[in-house]
Amino acid sequence: MNHAYTPSPSHRSATVRACAIALLWPLAAFGALAAGAGAEADAQARYKAERAVCTDGRSQQDTQTCLKEAGAALQASRSGELRKGAVPPDELRANRLARCDRVPQRDREECRKRITEGARSGSVAAGGVEYRHRTITSGDPAVPGRAASAP
Question: What range does the domain containing 54 cover?
Fold first, then answer.
């Protein structure tokens, strides 16, 4: 008599799953590596372009600062700290308003009005964004060159 081992159906399906995982794992790992290599290539290309802007004098910064910033951006890209895509408008507004926290207390409200209600001009590429807000007050203005009199 010949006694051959016949695996149970559950053992057979577990074996098939194990084999499938063993065969597919390298493909998944290769895909992850390829995606990482693509991201690294993108980061390197962006770094080279930024570096060219620095060395060609097309930057608004001095060369050393520009190169330092380009290197920092490359490092941040590699560690996943750089955001891809646009920053949400609410976050941009919160960042602008947070800058007003650094001005003296007496000027903070005017700072916030400039950011939220004021006119905007300029661009980052041109060297800066300017916000303007005009506050009109009623009453008699002091005459230039003469001290205001008390009532």
Answer: 16-78
